Amino acid sequence: MAFRLIPLGRTRFTAGALARGLIATAIAMSLSWGGVLYAANQSVQGAKKAEDAGFDGDAPTAILIEASSGSVLFEKNADELRAPSSMMKLVTAEVVFNAIKKGDVKLTDEYRISENAWRKGGAPSGGSTMFAAINSKVSVDDLLHGAIIQSGNDACIALAEGIAGSERIFAADFMTKRARELGMTKSTFGNSNGLPDPGNKMTVRELGILARHIILDFPEFYKLFGEKEFTWNKIRQPNRNPLLNSMEGADGLKTGYTKEGGYGMVGSAVQNGTRLIVVVNGLEDPEDRATEAKKMLEWGFRNFETRTLIAADQQVGYAKVFGGDSRSVKLVAKTPVKVMVHKNGNDKLIARVVYNGPVRAPVQEGQQVGVVRVWRSGNIAVETPVYAAEAIGTGSTMRRAIDGASELVIGMFRAGAEKL
């Protein structure tokens, strides 16, 4: 597989100061599997809907992701903010998983079921509940079972109060901070459980990002999502996920409903070694929710397969260097760049290395420089970091002066052209 980099844009500069911006370079590859990879000459924006993906579901917002690579197989209004309802419990669960992993919380720790948790999320609330008794103490392990399997609002409130002191602090500080750390830039939270609140907003894309993270980073906890029932306070409740009993390989994750958000779910299944994640939201009927999620997963398993575009540590291309003893630095991907493609081999892919540059010297070997993005039919299918394959030292004073003058002239020329 050969690579050729084509400069697609240059950085804009102002007199006296170097202004750094995004540079995109296209990668031309020969793909033996029969697909076609195009090196585009202009920016490509992710489409709201995959127009030629061969699938058009009924859900107002939806996304289908291959878990291993993060490759997006289908999306529809995937960045539209909506009320996530009980699917938001995944955020609370992840915060707890992460706290346990860091040693800040133990599964054996016990939290009290406050009157607030009991009234808002317990038996008197009329919503999904674990039926935890007021003023009782429940272990974190059992509260996680109640929140995940029974969708207990009381369990989520108890976890939030036990960790942060209050549910509002937990939502504002713990959930929001963790979401941003995971790259979920749009999500906002007003409580811990998804009960109606104007502050609760998420996109199906960010729910998919979260689900993938839980699956890959917390396998020991992910198994909870596949448990089909849980009994607490002598009340046995089945898992609310309809896929667990209707689809081969289904083992997660979470359903949700509020009047504002409609019916939605985050689901996942494994077949023939491939795991897919589906998120749908905004449907008007619980049966439609289950049918739509299953239909999308089955379509993905039936029509796609994984192909490797770039091997681990294979050179992807070059990034321009400013003020270095070399004018450019070789770039590699530390992990294989894989993408799900149609089995018929007719996908049209666009791949670009995108970085903030020119990259200032010195450059350390292994330093992340940018990302390689692969688009399929106008939608970003996968994004993988790329790193410097070598160290680049600081160049001579003359080299830095020449680079500065060159980039200044190019910036002035570009600025003048944009005014025409």
From TrEMBL:
Pathway: Cell wall biogenesis; peptidoglycan biosynthesis. Removes C-terminal D-alanyl residues from sugar-peptide cell wall precursors. Keywords: Carboxypeptidase, Cell shape, Cell wall biogenesis/degradation, Hydrolase, Peptidoglycan synthesis, Protease, Signal. This is serine-type D-Ala-D-Ala carboxypeptidase. Residues 304-394 form the Peptidase S11 D-Ala-D-Ala carboxypeptidase A C-terminal domain. GO terms for molecular function: serine-type D-Ala-D-Ala carboxypeptidase activity. Substrate binds at K254. SMART domains: PBP5_C. It catalyses: Preferential cleavage: (Ac)2-L-Lys-D-Ala-|-D-Ala. Also transpeptidation of peptidyl-alanyl moieties that are N-acyl substituents of D-alanine. InterPro entries: Beta-lactam/transpept-like, Peniciliin-bd_prot_C_sf, Peptidase_S11, Peptidase_S11_C, Peptidase_S11_C_sf, Peptidase_S11_N. Belongs to the peptidase S11 family. One of its GO terms (biological process) is cell wall organization.
